Amino acid sequence: MDNSQIQIVLQLLVAIILGAVLGFEREYKKKEAGLQTYSLVTLGSCLFTVMSTAAFNNFSGMSSVAFDPSRIVLAVATGIGFIGGGVIIYRQFRIEGLTTAAGLWTAAAIGIAVGLKLYGVACVATVLAAIIFIFFGAIERKIFNKD
């Protein structure tokens, strides 16, 4: 394994750890998507981003190849939107799963950031998302009497 592959493995590990931070909180609250799901979303989006970037680097400069690595962000966002749509349900006059869907969407963005080597941005986004999950949920329950 060369240095570039070691770098990619480290990126994938960072993505898993950041996803696990968010997934742990969701698991603790017994939500639909937890530790495994969030870790897989960040891992997958990071891997897609790394592969896209590597492919761009391999094919750049070739006149017969038109390749845009930024399309991976759109593809990941679309795919996660599909998964997120699957976790949103309407039950007994209530919509459930919106926070889970938004969390998965955010986890995918964090994975993309790691794939682009924007580690600081990914870490700050993870902390912010955890704050939203933990503290904003408590505020909603206290002020707005939500279950």
How is the topology of this model organized?
Layout: H1 3-28, H2 35-59, H3 71-87, E1 89-91, E2 94-96, H4 98-115, H5 119-144
Antiparallel strand pairs: 1-2
Helix pairs in contact: 1-2, 1-4, 1-5, 2-3, 2-4, 3-4, 4-5
Task: Write structural notes for this entry.
A hairpin with a 2-residue loop joins strand 1 (89-91) and strand 2 (94-96). The chain contains five helices and two strands, in the order H-H-H-E-E-H-H. The protein is elongated, with a radius of gyration of 17 Å. The protein starts with a helix and ends with a helix. The chain has one domain (3-59, 70-144). It has 147 residues and is mostly helical. The protein has a two-stranded antiparallel ribbon. It has helices spanning 3-28, 35-59, 71-87, 98-115, 119-144; strands at 89-91, 94-96. Helix 1 (3-28) runs antiparallel to helix 2, helix 1 (3-28) runs antiparallel to helix 4 (98-115) and helix 2 (35-59) runs parallel beside helix 4 (98-115).
Strand proportion, as a percent range, falls in under 5%
Strand order of the largest sheet: 1-2
Strands, total number: 2
The largest sheet, given as strand count, sense and whether it forms a barrel, is: 2 strands, antiparallel
Number of helices: 5
Reading the helices and strands in chain order gives HHHEEHH
Report the end-to-end length measured between terminal Cα atoms: 50 Å
| Uncertain stretches | none
What is the C-alpha radius of gyration, as a whole number of Å?
17 Å
Summing up helix and strand content along with how strands pair, one would put the structural category as mainly alpha
Overall number of domains? 1
> What general form does the structure show?
elongated
**Helical residues, percent:** over 70%
Residue-averaged pLDDT: 89
